[in-house]
Amino acid sequence: MIMAVTGLFFLGFLLVHMYGNLQILLGHEAFDEYAHHIRTFGAPMLPERGLLWVLRLGLLAAVGLHIWSAVTLWGRANRARPTKYVAKRVTYGGFYSRAMRWGGLAIAAFVIFHILHFTTQTVTIGAAHASPAARVVDSFSHWWGVLIYVVAMIFLGLHLLHGIWGAAMTLGLNTSFKRAEQIRFVSILVVTIVVVGFLIPPLGILFGLVK
Q: Is the dihedral of CA 81, 174, 1, 58 positive or negative?
C-alpha cells in the first residue's frame, strides 16, 4: 500500500514536471518566467523557494518510503522461494518484475544526475548558464545529452507501465476482467503521455525545432 500511494504521488509530480518542461516550446522567456514563478510561488506568505523546499522534502520522504517498501517486498519474495527454479522461464510478469527492480535503480541514478545537472549545475552538458532556458537548450543541443534522457525515459516508461498496474491492483480497482483491461489501457495511455511529453523538448531542441 505504501509503495502504491508513493508511486502515484510520483506520477502526479511527473505530470506537473512534464507540463513545466513543455514551456520551453513557447520560447526562452516563457520558460524562464515559469521557472521564476516556481521559486516565488506563494510570496509573500512563503519565502523565496519555500514551495520548492516543501516539494523537495515531500519527495524525499516519498522516495525513502518507496525504496523501503521495495526492499521489503523484494526480501519477502526471496524468503518465499529461497530455492531458484531449475529451469528459467521468461514470463510477462517476470520481465516486468525485473524491469521494476533494476529499472528503479537506474531511475534513482538518473534522478541524482538530473539534480546535479539542472539544479546545482555540478555536472554540465555544454556551458553553465544562469538562465534555465539557456541551460536546457544548450544541454539538449548535444546528441549524447539527449541520449542519456532517452534511455532514462525508456526505464521510466517500463517502471510506470507495471507500477500503475500494480498500484491499481493494490488499491483494489481490479473488480472485474473488464476493469482490469481498462486499467491496462489507462496504464499504457498515461505512460505514453509521460514518455512522449518528456522527450518532446530534448528531441525538439536537438533537431532544431526549438532555438
A: positive
How far is 165 from 4, CA to CA, in rounded Å? 10
The phi, psi pair for 207, rounded to 5°, reads -95, 15
Contact 16, 72 (CB under 8 A): no
What's the CA gap between 207 and 211, in Å, rounded?
Answer: 10
Q: Which residue in 205, 211, 191, 192 sits closest to 7, CA to CA?
A: 191
Q: Say what the pTM is.
A: 0.85
pLDDT in tens, 153-182: 999 999 998 889 889 988 888 878 888 899
Other beta carbons less than 10 A from residue 71's beta carbon:
11
Tell me how far the alpha carbon of residue 159 is from its chain's centroid: 9
Number of helices (H) and strands (E) in the chain: give both, helices first: 7, 0
- What is d(CA 133, CA 140) in angstroms, rounded to the nearest whole number? 11
